[in-house]
Amino acid sequence: MHIRRAVSADAEKLSSLLNEIIRAGGTTALETPLSAAEFADWFIDGEFPLTCHVAEHDQSLVGFQSLSLYGDPPKGFADIATFARMNPRAAGVGTALFPATRAAAEEFGLEFINATIRADNVSGLGYYAKMGFETYDRLVQVPLRDGTPVDRIKKRYRVEAGHHKKPDA
């Protein structure tokens, strides 16, 4: 799997990947599909994104991971978002992306990476736990667009420059 920084030209394919996940429902807090231009603004080159990496496998984009300052997080924090293609599913996308995101967080001098995950997103909760994120808060009964209340679990990863080695290092 090849990891690289996302560029504006990726927005159309990545918005398509994300919109498939949004339409499937049940894993992301995002409920409205994004146009390519909205995707680029939210994740690649708008006011709030710090970095966005893509994973490519067999000449195809199979996922992405971003760090963003959207929503005015506390100083030293940025929010992470991780998405992997649903069909066909590619194993290990998030695990492959995280070292690049962690390195970017170090470069930006972040203290923590924050992940806010729907409580019903079992695979997302498992992924972030596996990456070393620890639960520190819970937002109770946050309503979805249709009014359904779903808790959000807040997990954070402490960024410590130099304390993490890439598996192949």
From TrEMBL:
UniProt keyword terms in alphabetical order: Plasmid, Transferase
Domain of life: Bacteria
InterPro entries, per the entry: Acyl_CoA_acyltransferase, GNAT_dom
UniProt-listed PROSITE patterns: GNAT
Domain N-acetyltransferase, first and last residues per copy: 1-157
Molecular functions per Gene Ontology: acyltransferase activity, transferring groups other than amino-acyl groups
Species annotation: Rhizobium leguminosarum
Annotated Pfam families: Acetyltransf_1 (PF00583)
Descriptive protein name: Acetyltransferase
Keyword ATP-binding: no
The keyword rRNA-binding is assigned to this record: no
